[in-house]
Structure formats: C-alpha cells, structure tokens
Amino acid sequence: MPKRPTRGEGPAQSLTDRAYADLEELIVTLKLAPGATVSEAELSAQLGIGRTPIREALQRLARERLVVILPRRGVIVSEINVKSQLRLLEVRRELERLTARSAARRATDEEREQFREIVRNFEKSARANDDVAFMRTDRDFNNLCSQASHNEFALGAMSLMHSLSRRFWYIHYKQAADMPVTAKLHADIARAIADGDADRAAKATDKLLDVIEKFTRDTTDI
User: Fold this and answer.
1) Reduced to 3 states, what is the DSSP secondary structure of residue 37?
2) Separation of alpha carbons 165 and 172, rounded Å
C-alpha cells in the first residue's frame, strides 16, 4: 500500500497517523472484511509498523466504531448495520451543513487553495471512475472541512462518522450508486467553500446528503 504524508508532529505521531491511515483504508475498502479477527502482531507485520503505533491507531478506530477491541481475544472489524447508518446520516446532515458553512466563512487562503486542489482530485477520480482515488480524496476533503471550520467541537464529532460512511458506500456503491456523480457532488461543496460562499456550500451539502440517504435506503428494504 502506498504510504501517504501525514501532519504528525514528530516520528512517533507520524507513525501512528500512518498506521491509522493504512488500517482505515484496509477496513473501508474491505481488505479487512466485517467480522474479520486480527491481532496487533499480524497488522504490525503486514504494514511494517511497530506495535505501539498500531495499538494507538486501533484505539482510534475503535472510537470510530470500525473495530471492536476484545482484551486477550484480539481485534474484530465491526459489522455493518443499515439502521445505524441511517441514524448516523441524520446527525451527519446537520453537522456537515454547519461545517461547510463555517469552512466557507473561516478558511484561510492556504486552506482555500487546498480545497481547489481537492476539487481537481474529485474531478479526476470521476473521469477515471477510480473508487480508491475517490475514497482517499474524500478522506482528505473531510479532514480539511473539519480543519477549515476552525471549530474543535465540530472536528471531533465529524471524525467519528466519516469512516463508517465511506465503508458503507464502498460496499454498496456498485449496486446502488454512481461514483462519478458522487465525486462531482463532493467537488461542488469543495468549490463553494473555496469561493467563500456559505449558502452555496450548505445547499451543495444538502444535495449530497439527499443522494447518500437515497443510496442507503436503496441498499435495503427499509
């Protein structure tokens, strides 16, 4: 798996961030499937990262409900629950609207340029119909939105939702979603934030969440 740069503040933090990013991608893209049991030692050997950063990354993933840590029994990748996903979307809609508005108003010039780069990356993944590139750009987008909102409480709340949402989307999108359309809807939000248009960012967020909610319901008889 390619190693990505992180924003860690030193070697130990960078290794933890790298471990988290790699494990999150393995889970979201189903290389670690729901219900799979893994150990710190196995993951350390697979990723070539020491057990302490792996342990710290797993603790973060447990807070995000992607894994369940069972003392003396190992780590289990969490199962998928559609009803929980719909409840998550109720909260996500309100928080994402707030975060998009705040980012549009408060983003620095540097952050706005980063949003413009993310627009280009979303559009590139849409043209190539590249689901993994989309997932990576989506993670960067979510992190940047939280950062640019300059609201530490929104940042903490949003970080608990996006990985679960990405995994659910990855599992089902080929049967019920259009990845290029989804990427373009994300790009619309990023473009509005880069332009400093809070109302347009909020409307683009609602449009995306409408599509995601319909997609979620289309995967089941609920």
Assistant:
1) strand
2) 11
Whether the predicted pLDDT of 1 surpasses 50: no
Task: Quickly count: other Cβ atoms within 10 Å of residue 23's Cβ.
Answer: 26
Please check the confidence at residue 10 and state whether its pLDDT lies above 90. no
Residue 159: DSSP 8-state: T
Helix (H) or strand (E) holding 74: strand 74-77
* pTM of the entire predicted model: 0.74
Residue 83 three-state SS: helix
Residue 162, classified by CB atoms within 10 Å of its CB into exposed (0-12), middle (13-18) or buried (19+), is buried
Q: What is the pLDDT of residue 205?
A: 97
H-only helix segments in 74-178: 82-106, 109-128, 131-149, 152-158, 162-176
Flag the least confident range among 57-61, 69-73, 101-105, 204-208: 69-73
Copy the structure tokens of residue 201.
């960012």
All structural domains of the chain, each given as residue ranges with its CATH number in brackets, are: 11-77 (1.10.10.10), 82-218 (1.20.120.530)
Separation between Cα atoms, residue 80 and residue 101, nearest integer Å = 30
For residue 77, the cross-strand partners are 67
What b-and-e string marks burial along 76-85, b requiring 16 or more CB atoms within 10 Å of the CB? ebbeeeeeeb
Confidence of residue 12 (pLDDT cuts 50, 70, 90): very low
